Amino acid sequence: MDKKTIKTILFTAFLAAALVAAAVKPEFFLGILSKASALLMPVLIGAAIAFVMNIPVMKFRKYFSRIFKRAGERTLNMLSIAAVYIIFIAIITGIIWVIVPRLISCIALFIGNFDRYYSNFIGYCSRLESGDTLGIFCALKNAIEGLNKKIPQMLETTAVKTSELAGGIAKLLIGFVISIYILIDKENIRRGTALIVRHISGERYETVCKRYRMVYEIFSRFVVGQISEAVILGVLCFIGMTIFRFEYALLISTIIGITALIPVIGAIIGTVPSALLLFMVNPIRAVWFVVFIIVLQQLENNFIYPRVVGKSLGIPPLLVLLAILLGAGIGGVAGILLGVPLMSLAYAVFKEKLC
Predict the structure, then answer these.
(1) Of the candidates 284, 225, 295, 281, which has an alpha carbon nearest to the alpha carbon of residue 249?
(2) Tens-of-pLDDT digits for all 355 residues of the chain?
(3) Pick from 345, 331, 322, 35: which is nearest to 218 by CA?
(4) ∠219-64-191 over CA atoms, to 5°?
């Protein structure tokens, strides 16, 4: 019996033992996975950031290779990484310097006027309640009143949420640093991964490599497209709200832009809290805001999304919606973000097999 056969037998036995352990003691197995994922979360975040950053790094590398023709591979790689991360940090610093203070002032203004907005809202609902045969405004008023009573209870959990947020930011910063090391050493990581995959897959190595290239291409187009579309949508929302003199234009445009990172339904999710915020200020303006968002959504779906993202993912809208629903049920927000490109990959493989 040769070494390769022995290794295959040992690997199969280990895999079978792990599956049996998971079937016999699922809670123990899930606990180990949970602890391992918590410990490895900064590494996973770093890998995700490195994946996204590698797209502009490769573009800068091609640009620098034309300028510095005698530079070595490692020098070009280091220059590209440095350029991309300096630009990224400059953009983030600019956003924090310009937008965050205005966002804080908007939030402070809303909190300062909350009592007046709340009284106006309750009075408006009370006036319409008498002619509301369906009881919509009565139910809405009761819901807001119930939410108002829960505010002290919600404030009690602020410290816990703040600590969780601080922990998440710390993991994000660690992951950001890890992503730099991953990109610097990506060639060694790639060679090591290739050796492992070649050992495991054997004769199917070329097929595995082909699938990897397909995954990389789909995810790259998806990430670049979604980020570009979210930025464009947020900017257009801010311009439109400024022209039509809607209140809290910057705050609401930021909400719309961030939620637009979620495919298809993201802007709709952002519209709900934004419309409620404006409804408390001026109900009629909230209605016009919803009309504005509907028009903006039509502009996005018919012009922006096809041109920015294109039809690069190449899957029917029904499968996109199914991917979002399944992703949300399995992995929450992360599942939503990963569901669409994974569904696109499965659809591409399925079409390839049929053809």
Answers:
(1) 281
(2) 556 666 666 667 766 776 666 666 666 666 666 677 667 778 878 887 888 888 888 888 888 888 887 778 888 888 999 999 999 898 888 877 877 777 777 777 777 777 777 777 767 766 666 665 556 666 666 666 565 555 555 545 555 555 666 677 788 888 889 989 988 888 888 888 778 777 766 677 777 777 777 777 777 777 777 788 888 888 899 999 899 988 888 888 888 888 887 766 677 788 888 887 787 777 788 889 989 988 888 877 667 666 655 555 566 666 766 777 777 666 666 666 667 777 777 777 777 666 5
(3) 345
(4) 50
According to DSSP, residue 135 is labeled: -
Closest listed residue to residue 53, CA positions, set 93, 88, 78, 77: 88
Q: Is 4 helix (H, G, I), strand (E, B) or coil?
A: helix
pTM: 0.66
Helices (H), the chain: 3-24, 26-67, 73-112, 114-129, 136-156, 158-184, 186-201, 205-243, 249-259, 266-281, 283-299, 305-308, 317-354
Q: Locate the domains of the chain by residue range.
A: 41-184
183, two tokens: 């990109």
The residue length of the chain stands at 355
Residue 180 in contact with residue 310, Cβ under 8 Å?
no
Q: Using CA atoms, how far apart are residues 204 and 209, in angstroms rounded to an integer?
A: 9
Whether the Cβ atoms of residue 211 and residue 204 lie closer than 8 Å to each other: no
Burial of 43 (0-12, 13-18, 19+ CB in 10 A): middle
CB atoms within 10 A of CB 17: 10
